[in-house]
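Last lecture ended with a question: if I hand you only a sequence, what can you say about the shape of the protein? Today we answer it with a concrete record. The protein is Z-ring formation inhibitor MciZ. Below, first the input exactly as provided, then the predicted structure, then a couple of comments.
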Amino acid sequence: MKSYFSEKSVCVQGKAWQVRIMLNQWQKEVGKSAKVKDLIRTRTSKQNKRGE
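The predicted structure:
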């Protein structure tokens, strides 16, 4: 299972059931009403903090 985040997109690779589980986990992290752009923003900001 692989996932890649950039500032404008997300790419998830894996079997359908793996992708579904990953999306459910992300939804729990950012909230049910959150949009994909909110998820990308939280993930890219975490990666930027790790890189600094």
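Comments.
1. The first strand starts at residue 2 and ends at 5.
2. The CA atoms of residues 11 and 35 lie 15 Å apart.
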